[in-house]
Amino acid sequence: MIVVKVGGSSGIDYDAVCVDLAGRWKAGERLILVHGGSGETNRVAEALGHPPKFVTSPSGYTSRFTDRQTLEIFEMVYCGKMNKGLVERLQRLGVNAVGLSGLDGRIFEGKHKDSVRSVEGGKVKVLRGDHTGTVERVNTGLIELLLGAGYLPVLTPPAASYEGVAINVDGDRAAAQLAVALRAEALLLLSNVPGLLRDFPDESSLIRDIPANDVERYLEFAQDRMKKKVLGAAEAVAGGVGRVVFGDARAGKPISAALSGAGTVVS
Ligand code: ADP
């Protein structure tokens, strides 16, 4: 089993990802696609007059503050436009894809965090009404049912809280938990960069290999949201996933390239 997570930043070539995925699926490989949608969500939120608000925690992690209205916009884009756009591409390529969010069948489950600590102007503030959380459990029953019947699952946040509330979760870490739960041989985290860069944004500073027992040391090179990918990779390899690759989804055959060693390989 290979779990492919494709991000939501600008520059990602979704057609290239789907063509590559469809070819491998038809050749008999078992794959699952997980996707993001942050770039498009930001655009739609601006257009709807509810611009995104990002908060930085005291430990330096940036996340989207997700009030109820933001959650609904998030769902429109992730579960609607992005998810159906990918399912449509795959259907056109002859793959019987089924798009689901983590809420459906409680595929992704976790704790709802209602408040977030945010550093603003050097001070730490507590913001309430946040609909976020982290995936702690993956319920694989529905996924196995679909795979067993020949459908390719296309999954996206949000997740379900233990109380059944929709929560915005990080897609990279959700994909990592999924890969662990399915005992995947590989997790591919595809984005709009060649991999983890030692000196971002200098693309010639690509880090080629990271030893599995030393992933967290590489957090120092990752800024902003790249940190979540490094954390996800650490969780995946610690949970038994054979390898994690940070790969480039801007062109070519992104899945095949990552599987043949392009990008940053954590193993
Ligand atoms: P996606 O939505 O595609 O999953 P993110 O935007 O969450 O991707 O994370 C990828 C982004 O992380 C890159 O576009 C880049 O701007 C940023 N980044 C920060 N530090 C690094 C780094 N050291 N190497 C590569 N990218 C980095």
UniProtKB/TrEMBL annotation:
Pfam family of the protein (one): AA_kinase
One GO MF term attached to the UniProt entry: ATP binding
Keywords, comma-separated and alphabetical: Amino-acid biosynthesis, ATP-binding, Cytoplasm, Kinase, Lysine biosynthesis, Nucleotide-binding, Transferase
Record-listed substrate binding positions: 64, 168
Coiled coil: none
EC number per UniProt: 2.7.2.17
One Gene Ontology biological process: lysine biosynthetic process via aminoadipic acid
Family under the similarity heading: Belongs to the acetylglutamate kinase family. LysZ subfamily.
Name of the protein in its database record: [LysW]-aminoadipate kinase
Species this chain originates from: Deinococcus wulumuqiensis
Lineage: Bacteria, Thermotogati, Deinococcota, Deinococci, Deinococcales
